[in-house]
Design goal:
Blueprint: H1 2-20, E1 31-35, E2 51-53, E3 56-61, E4 64-69, E5 77-81, E6 89-96, E7 106-111, E8 117-122, E9 130-135, E10 138-144, E11 153-162, E12 165-174, E13 184-189, E14 197-202, E15 209-218
Antiparallel strand pairs: 1-15, 2-5, 3-4, 4-15, 5-14, 6-11, 6-15, 7-8, 7-14, 8-9, 9-10, 11-12, 12-13
């Protein structure tokens, strides 16, 4: 009897854990937008983005082209793209920073305009090793994440809205690997969905952030 009860308790705890951090399924839905930066001139992308805001150049990095986000007087650099008011989508992109970085460099994803949400990944500096979700300017949640320099990492964000409830899930992981579960999840009521989806970077003076392989898919 005790063995049966113990087995049942283990099953219940496992079920609760899987509900709290659901597994990360691959998304093969229709592509809304994608970019791999194969062209050599930044001007070639002027029709790809609705807004290219900040200080950017194109560089070759380890056999692949990357969009390089450079210092912009302590302001964020932002790629704003896709239609406005997206409510069901999956967005992912790759980031890279060099081992010479010794200040706080951040990169991430955003949506919903000024009063929306931002997901920041901090590979260096005082906030080193954190994945953080910020909503309306306030930290909603953050988790620890060990990162290696000179390594490509991906951030993925899934947003799904049903009625007035928007469920946001995000994860960061080393490129080439597959995450087992979401790292941060949250339900938001009446989420502000104005504005466009964005890829955000916060480079410091001599430390750029590299961006590649942006893709947005439907999440219906």
């Amino acid at each position: 009897m005790k063995t049966a009860l113990l087995s049942l308790l283990v099953l219940l705890l496992a079920s609760c854990g899987s509900m709290y951090k659901s597994s990360v399924a691959s998304n093969s839905n229709d592509v809304i937008f994608s970019e791999t930066f194969d062209h050599k001139n930044l001007e070639d992308y002027k029709d790809s983005f609705f807004v290219l805001s900040g200080n950017y150049v194109l560089d070759a990095l380890g056999g692949r082209n990357a969009l390089t986000s450079r210092f912009n007087n302590n302001r964020e650099n932002a790629l704003l793209f896709g239609p406005e008011k997206l409510s069901n989508y999956s967005l992912e992109t790759s980031f890279f920073y060099k081992s010479t970085a010794n200040n706080t460099v951040a990169a991430g994803l955003g949506g919903g305009g000024i009063a929306g949400f931002k997901i920041h990944l901090y590979p260096t500096g005082d906030q080193m090793g954190k994945l953080r979700l910020i909503y309306n300017g306030v930290i909603y949640d953050e988790v620890e994440m060990k990162m290696l320099p000179d390594t490509w990492y991906k951030i993925r964000l899934d947003l799904k809205t049903v009625g007035t409830t928007s469920t946001l899930q995000c994860v960061a992981y080393e490129e080439g690997k597959h995450p087992k579960s979401w790292m941060i999840s949250g339900d938001f009521q009446n989420l502000d969905l104005k504005g466009q989806v964005s890829v955000l970077t916060y480079p410091v003076r001599s430390i750029p952030v590299y961006i590649d392989d942006i893709i947005i898919r439907k999440n219906d």
